[in-house]
Amino acid sequence: MTPVEGAQMWQTYLEPLRAQGVLLGSPAPSSAPAGLTWIQDFLTACNGGCTVDFIALRMFTHPNHESRLTVIVTDYYDVNATAFQEYLENFYNTFQRPLWITEWACENYNNVNAQCSPDDIVSFMNQTKGFMDSSSFVERYAWFGAMENMQGVNPDDALMDSSGKINALGEQYIGTQIASNGSGSPGVTVSGGHSRTISWTMTAFAALLGIAVS
C-alpha cells in the first residue's frame, strides 16, 4: 500500500472514529529503515486530514547482527539497548507523538541459523523493557509473543510453554520476576511490572491463560 492510498483509506474509515473519542494510532511501518519515510509521506498525503494520536512501531532484532529496524545505528552489537533506544528516540523526535511498540523481540532475520540464545533474550528484554518503563514518550508496548506457536519467530521468545502455561520469560515480562545477569532464567521476585506500559498486553495475555485482570 502506498502512503497516498493509506491516507485515503484513513480519512474514509478511521478518521470518523476520532469524533467518537477513539484514539488513533499510525499505521505500523515496515521494520526496514524506509518505515520512517513511509510515515512521513503518509502524513504529507493526509494534508492535515488525519488525526494520529500515537505512532505504532515494530522491532525485531538480534544483539550481534545488523538490525532490520535501526534507523540511525545500522549495526547492533553486544547485548545492550543502544540501537533500540536510538530507534525509538528518532521516531519520537521526528513526529513528536507518543509511541506504542506493537511488537518487539530478539530475532535475527538476516541469518535464521544464528538466533538469539535464551541468555540473549533475557538480557535484551530486561534492558529494552527497562528503557521503555522509564521513558516519558513510550505509552504502550507488547513483546512478541504471548502464544504457543510463534509463527516462525524464534521460539525462545515465547512467553508461554507449549501447553499454554506462562514460562520464566513470561514471568519476567509481567514483572513478577526479574532476570539475573546472564543466567538465562529469571531470578529474584520483584514488586510487579510497569502498569502503564504492560496493561494492554496483560489483558490479552491473561485471557489466554485464564487469569482475571482487574
What is the 3D form? elongated
Strand residue percentage: 5-15%
Enumerate how many helices there are, as a single number.
6
Average predicted confidence as pLDDT: 75
Listing every helix as H and every strand as E from the N terminus to the C terminus, the arrangement reads HHEEEHEHEHEEH
Radius of gyration, taken over Cα atoms and rounded to an integer in Å = 18 Å
Number of beta strands: 7
Distance between the termini: 39 Å
* Largest β-sheet summary: 3 strands, parallel
Secondary-structure class: alpha/beta
Poorly predicted tracts of residues: 62-80, 180-192, 195-214
Helix amount, in percent? 25-40%
Strand order of the largest sheet: 1-4-5
Tally the structural domains.
Answer: 1
Model description:
The protein is an alpha/beta fold and 214 residues long. It has one domain. Helices cover 38% and strands 15% of the residues. It contains six helices and seven strands, in the order ααβββαβαβαββα. The protein has helices at 3-18, 34-46, 82-95, 118-134, 168-174, 195-209, and strands at 55-61, 65-66, 75-76, 99-106, 138-143, 177-179, 186-189. The strands form three sheets. Strands 1-4-5 form a three-stranded parallel beta sheet. A two-stranded antiparallel ribbon has the order 2-3. A two-stranded antiparallel sheet has the order 6-7. Helix 1 packs across helix 2 (34-46).
